[in-house]
Amino acid sequence: MKTALSIAGSDTSGGAGVQADLKTMTVNGVYAMCAITALTVQNTLGVTNILEVEPAFLGQQIDAVFQDIRPDAVKVGMVSSAGLIRVIAQKLRQHGAQNVVVDPVMVATSGAKLISDEAVLALKEELLPMATVLTPNVPEAEVLAGMPVKTEADMETAAKWISETYHCGVLLKGGHQLNDANDLLYRDGSARWFRGKRIDNPNTHGTGCTLSSAIASNLAKGFSLEESVERAKDYISGALGAMLDLGQGSGPMDHGFDLTGKYMETAKKA
Predict the structure, then answer these.
(1) What is the pLDDT of residues 151-163, one digit of tens each?
(2) Is 267 a domain residue?
(3) How many Å apart are CA 142 and CA 53, to the nearest integer?
(4) Residue 149, CB half-sphere, CA atoms under 13 Å: how many?
(5) Does the residue 106 lie in any domain?
């Protein structure tokens, strides 16, 4: 069985973070493991407290995984401090990690900054150049590319700049800010649009975590990056389309909407 590691924070509501990653990876047919960067106190109404782990302890978690059950892919989610980012990069280099998917969580969809300038710099210098693919939203792409992103042409320009600067693939998520659900994948000098349809569901907590961990799962199973993105978008559309409605705020998706095995398929060549 193929394996995947989530390096991210814990979400007590189960809708995002490590919990969303583990559910997504399981339904997408890989054995899921985790290294926790922070504990949060949160529910569908918001986050009320965060307790970061010590960088050395995070490093020990990553070592424990790689030294026993080596992951075929790694997903890195929200990491809010420079010290933790540097440890992650150091350990992934040390262990020769492959199929690294980085969700560069820096800016909320509201536009609010989520991590410090020092952490953004560490992310750019240490972690992004190691990635197979990055999955920024529009505000995050604006930070990385240093330009406003208002149109699909802007998305193409920004994705090209980010890809060529950090030498990795970039899946720039259009979301509801520019278009319905049209995402742009840029890699190796070429761009491909993945057109989607908007699903009228206000419960979107954890969509970014879910998409990036689904991509990692499919890379682990031997699918190409393009195939992995396509399968991940199909999965997240199904999870949103199940219309789960829990909590008083922006609730979680139904990660287990399809347990028939469709998403557990491995690539024919794997």
Answers:
(1) 999 999 999 999 9
(2) no
(3) 29
(4) 29
(5) yes
